[in-house]
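Reopening: Guanylate kinase still failing for me.
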Amino acid sequence: MASAAPQHPPVRLTVLSGPSGVGKGTVVAEVRRRHPEVWVSVSATTRPPRPGEVDGVHYHFVSDAEFDRLIADDGLLEWAEYAGNRYGTPAAPVRERLAAGAPALLEIELQGARQVRARDTDAQLVFLAPPSWGELVSRLAGRGSEPAAVQERRLAIAQAELDAAGEFDVVVVNDDVVRAADELVGLLTAPSSGSLRSGGASE
Ligand SMILES: Nc1nc2c(ncn2[C@@H]2O[C@H](COP(=O)(O)OP(=O)(O)O)[C@@H](O)[C@H]2O)c(=O)[nH]1
Ligand SMILES: Nc1ncnc2c1ncn2[C@@H]1O[C@H](COP(=O)(O)OP(=O)(O)O)[C@@H](O)[C@H]1O
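Support: Ran it again with your exact input. Result attached.
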């Protein structure tokens, strides 16, 4: 006899990381344009909004005190400091999503990806890589959302992030947005064998 079926088809948490300016936001937007059913976590951050960013849509923009409170209340699945600001994944929506049997996507940086890996060995870690270093530099500069000094800081972090690409399960090269989005969609719908363990955030 077959063993008891799971309550819902196994789903997995997918993490997308990659250096600033590689095109994470652009590729995720393309995935959602074609697959509106793909659920993407909205992070909390102490970074100020860029022009056009909407609170609750792109990020939950919070004060330092509010971020402290999220940590103290065990409300974050993971969090990290990046280029002088803090970023974290609200835990409850991710747990609800996975409990409902639906896949969840986090777009977070390297330290956060490592925390997710430590907590959930079944999570799928995807690294979005630039076709070349020169292309990364020109994309970040071309976006024009940060002053030169901030771009320099992000590029210094990017060097270390590229060195860590081998820690990820899959590397997707963002040479072309549509092609990279296709690859990501394939990974999001790939079968898995488990789901997020229960338990609170502890970092
Ligand atoms: N650990 C962690 N990193 C995050 C989270 N949200 C966003 N990030 C990452 O923080 C970094 C900076 O994000 P942002 O300031 O929006 O810049 P951008 O990614 O260059 O547009 C990026 O690598 C994001 O992937 C989060 O909830 N947790
Ligand atoms: N495949 C690509 N080819 C050319 N330009 C791209 C590509 N993907 C993204 N870009 C551009 O690179 C810049 C950075 O993309 P963005 O999505 O903001 O990166 P990230 O979220 O990783 O910081 C944007 O100006 C975007 O239009």
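Residues 20-21, 24-25, 43, 47, 78-80, 82, 87-89, 107-109, 111-112 surround guanosine-5'-diphosphate (ligand 1) (CB under 6 Å). If you still see a failure, please send the error message rather than a screenshot.
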